[in-house]
Design a protein that fits this description.
With about 280 residues, the protein is α+β, with helices and mostly antiparallel strands. The protein is built from 10 helices and 11 strands.
């Protein structure tokens, strides 16, 4: 029995007016519950939305569909959760997440922290998705809150489990140290020009070998992963600083603000200026 001082009794959440959600609680005996899934759903969040857990009992997966939010994990600085990102939050640790400006649309899944979830990292991770898990969660949530046809629910439930396994399977493999060192170096020097030959030379392998390693361990080709690092850093600068687009472009490796704005708009679905207006401080 938990004491009144047990931190698990003090989870807190703020859901301002305007927050909307489609929630699926996995009933005992269902396919999802047997596999360890506790709940899942879709959430459209507005400024002021916040969840804080001093000790999470569940493994939590959050996929950003649109907009941007933030996440704080034990021993780590605040990170932006932007479009096309997935956050993996392991059980047994403190974390918080929410949105301060604009909107933040997410698909999410809670998995029983007492159950083994193969591939779940031991510390919080934010990276690009590697599966259709968001699509599967969306399909199940909409069917559950709508027609609730048993055949359709079974189909979407199976797809959720398959997508979850695929999403985490790559994380069960540890990336080679050379690959980890390479991208750590690049992340600290995004203002520099990084050609594929230079990336391969820095990693100590051939261009073909680097491509194979990145696709296997990151789910992306080297050039695409590099572009993602540049755009994520730009996203953080737009939210956390008052630097102009002209200043940010060379800092993240773009030769001019026009090419930066085009790339950012394709990725985020809006211009850098519009993104800052919606999500900046």
């Amino acid at each position: 029995m938990m004491s009144p001082d047990d931190p698990r009794l003090h989870d807190s959440g703020t859901h301002p007016t305007g927050t909307v959600a489609q929630w699926v609680s996995c009933s005992s005996g269902s396919v999802l519950a047997k596999a360890g899934v506790v709940s899942l759903g879709l959430s459209g969040n507005v400024p002021g939305y916040r969840i804080s857990r001093p000790l999470s009992l569940d493994h939590i997966v959050i996929i950003t569909i649109a907009g941007a939010g933030w996440m704080e994990a034990a021993g780590d600085e605040r990170r932006v959760l932007g479009p096309g990102s997935i956050a993996l939050l392991p059980a047994g640790a403190a974390h918080a997440y929410g949105v301060d400006r604009g909107s933040w649309d997410i698909a999410w899944l809670n998995f029983d922290g007492h159950r083994r979830l193969a591939g779940m990292p031991t510390t919080a991770v934010v990276r690009p998705p590697r599966s259709s898990l968001a699509h599967a969660i969306s399909g199940l949530a909409q069917e559950h809150c709508g027609p609730r046809a048993s055949e359709a629910l079974s189909h979407w439930s199976a797809l959720v489990l398959l997508s979850l396994r695929r999403e985490l399977s790559a994380d069960a493999r540890v990336a080679p140290e050379a690959l980890t060192d390479l991208w750590s170096t690049v992340a600290g020097r995004l203002h520099e020009a990084w050609s594929l030959p230079r990336l391969a030379k820095t990693a100590g392998c051939s261009v073909d070998a680097l491509d194979a390693l990145c696709r296997r361990h990151l789910g992306l080709a080297p050039g695409r992963h590099l572009a993602l690092l540049r755009l994520r850093r730009a996203q953080e600068l737009l939210i956390a600083t008052s630097l102009t687009v002209v200043q940010i472009a060379p800092m993240v490796g773009y030769p001019d603000p026009f090419s930066f704005s085009r790339a950012f708009s394709r990725w985020a679905g809006c211009s850098p200026i519009r993104f800052r207006q919606r999500f900046g401080g």
